[in-house]
Amino acid sequence: MLLAAKHPEAVTKLSALFAKRDIRKVYLAVCVGHPGDTTIVEPIGRCRKNRQLMTVYDGPPGKPALTHVRTLAFDGKISAALLRIETGRTHQIRRHLAAVGHPLAGDRKHGDFAFNRDVRARWGLKRLFLHAAFIEVPHPEDGRKVRFEAPLPEELKAVLRAAGLERA
User: Fold this and answer.
1) Which residues contact 66 (CB under 8 A, 6 or more apart)?
2) How many domains does the chain have?
3) C-beta of residue 70 within 8 angstroms of C-beta of residue 82
4) How far apart are CA 93 and CA 56, in angstroms?
5) How far apart, in whole angstroms, are the C-alpha atoms of residue 105 and residue 24?
6) pLDDT in tens, the chain (168 residues)
7) Phi, psi of 40 (to 5 degrees)
C-alpha cells in the first residue's frame, strides 16, 4: 500500500504525522507457531556482515522498533496474526517475528527454510505472506481519520482457506 500526497503542504503534514507516529499501519500475516498477543520491542539495524539484511540488536546500531501482535487464528502449527507497527524500520515485521521464533510464511531471507518448502508444496504459497491490510491517517486539512484498506489477494485467501485459517 502506498500513501501519496498531491500538494507540497500535504507532504509536509504527512511527514510530520509519520514522525509523530500518528499514522496507524496494520498488516495481516501468517507465521510459524503461535505468537500470542504481545508487543515486540527490539531495536533493528543493518546486519554488519550482509548490509542487505536487517537484524535485531541489543542496542546500537539498532534503532528503536515496536510491533504489536494479535493472533487471530492458530491451527496447531501456524497462525494468522494482525500486526500493528508504531515504527517503520525496514523489514521490521519480518525481523521481529523471526527474532521471537515465529518467522513469516514464505520469508526466504529471515524465515524457516524447511517450513517454507512445506508451505510452497502444501498450499502453493510463492511469496511472503505479509499483507498491508489498512492504513489510517488524520487528513492533512481537517484532521479527521481517513482509512485506506487493501483487499487480500486471492492467492493469500487461498492459503488461509487451505490452512483452515479463513476466519482470520
Assistant:
1) 39, 40, 41, 85, 86, 87
2) 1
3) yes
4) 11
5) 24
6) 777 888 898 888 888 888 888 889 999 999 999 999 999 999 999 988 888 888 898 778 889 999 999 999 998 889 999 999 999 898 999 999 999 999 999 998 878 888 888 888 888 888 999 999 999 998 877 889 999 999 999 989 988 988 888 765
7) -100, 120
Classify residue 11: in a domain, yes or no: no
Question: How far apart are alpha carbons 136 and 98 in whole angstroms?
Answer: 26
At which residue does the C-alpha cell 525496514 appear? 90
Give the separation between CA 89 and CA 96, rounded to whole angstroms.
Answer: 10
Name residue, grid cell 535485531.
56
Cα radius of gyration (the chain): 17
- State whether residue 72 is helix, strand or coil: strand
Q: Residue 31, exposed/middle/buried by CB under 10 A (0-12, 13-18, 19+)?
A: buried
The 8-class DSSP code of residue 131 comes to E
Q: Which CATH number belongs to the domain containing residue 116 in this structure? A: 3.30.2350.10
pTM of this structure:
0.88
Domain assignment of residue 1, yes or no = no
Kind and range of the H or E element at 101?
none
**Which of 135, 137, 140, 138 shows the shortest CA–CA distance to 13?**
140
* Secondary structure of 143-160 as H, E, C letters: CCEEEEECCCCHHHHHHH
